[in-house]
Amino acid sequence: DDLLQIYDVNSKNKTNLTIKKFERLLPNLFVYASDETDDLTPLIEFIKDMDLNRKELPYILFLLVFTTIITIIMINFNNQIGVYCSDVYVYLLNSLNFAGIDLGSHSPLYLSPVICFCTSLLFRLGYVDITAIYIVTGVFAIFGMVGFYLLLRYRFNKLLSLTGAILLFSLSLNLLWLANGTLDIPAVGLTVW
């Protein structure tokens, strides 16, 4: 039989094995490797690094309630004034294509498909309206603000992190583009994560 030379990292020894013996040990190696790795280990390490605990929950809930209220107000505002950026129509056309509704027009599918795909899910549920893209971009904005809070929380205390997230969310430039169907605020939200 051919001999394999195996180097054991733990003991720093070299071992000679026959191929048949190695094939018998191979299933055990995979069992040990899968036992050592845990899918939740990076998440647990992240939570430990940030010192997240139950005391953090009121801050996150306050941020969620605050951002949700502002987002609902901005969705209603954008419904009243209508679309003021023509890109929204291209995103809606892409969303209709993703939903399987063919209008006989070819939209440029080179645009970011994430928002369009999420909007198409609402279209498939039967809610075909311009408000659907407002809702999707608003949800991504809320998601981004929670991510920004957690990013700040990595270096600052709870109160400073909450203040920074609220400050970013309520800047006039962000409010102008919040939940209006464009990709600007959702892109920032996804970038934070």
Short description:
With 193 residues, the chain is mainly alpha-helical. The protein is built from 9 helices and 2 strands.
List keywords for this structure.
193 residues
Describe what this molecule looks like in 3D.
This protein has 193 residues and is mainly α. Helices cover 66% and strands 6% of the residues. It is built from nine helices and two strands; from the N terminus they run ββααααααααα. It has a two-stranded antiparallel sheet. A hairpin with a 4-residue loop joins β1 (3-8) and β2. α3 (57-81) runs antiparallel to α6, α5 (113-124) packs across α6 and α6 (131-153) runs antiparallel to α7 (158-169). The termini are far apart.
Rg, nearest Å: 25 Å
Q: Spans with pLDDT under 50 lasting ≥5 residues? A: 30-36
- Number of beta strands: 2
**Shape summary:** flat
Largest sheet: 2 strands, antiparallel
Query: Could you report the average pLDDT, rounded to the nearest whole number?
Result: 79
Percent of residues in beta strands?
5-15%
User: Helix count, per DSSP?
Assistant: 9
- Global structural class: mainly alpha
Distance between the termini: 53 Å
Instruction: Name the strands of the widest sheet in spatial order.
Output: 1-2
Helical content band: 55-70%
- Give the H and E element order: EEHHHHHHHHH
Layout of helices and strands:
Elements: E1 3-8, E2 13-18, H1 19-36, H2 41-50, H3 57-81, H4 87-98, H5 113-124, H6 131-153, H7 158-169, H8 172-177, H9 184-192
Antiparallel strand pairs: 1-2
